[in-house]
Amino acid sequence: MFNLWWPADVQVLGKDIIRFHGVYWIALLMAAELPLPKQLLVHGWIKVNEQKMSKSLGNVVDPIALQTTYGVDPVRYYLMRYIPVNQDGDFSIESLERAIEKDLANDLGNLLKPHGCFG
User: Fold this and answer.
1) What is the mean pLDDT of residues 29-36?
2) Comparing C-alpha atoms, which of 62, 66, 86, 60 is closest to residue 78?
3) What does the pLDDT average to over 69-89?
4) Rg over CA atoms, the chain
């Protein structure tokens, strides 16, 4: 199974653990003569009310609840459009709902409906 999953094409890590994964982990892999990950993708924090999302702060957002309430594709759209990969991004339910209503329902919905895409 190890050979199936390693070496990683992309290793995804948070900006707060880059020292461990970018230096120590690489050194450990080299010492063990194991192949290195091909690329490191360092992402920013997802913040809620300008605070880092954290279990200890209790400000986490349940992805299952988001999917159940809004659906997978609208949540994916919002995260890809409004939360930058390599910077911090601020999440709120209000912003998610605004993006779904404005971008998807109004703009995209109005663009496609006259052309018969939705029956």
Assistant:
1) 95
2) 66
3) 92
4) 19
Q: Element (H or E) spanning 11, and its range?
A: strand 11-14
Within 8 A by CB and 6+ apart from 74, the residues are 96, 99, 100, 104
pTM comes to 0.69
- The amino acid sitting at 95 is S
Residue 96: count other Cβ atoms within 10 Å of its Cβ: 20
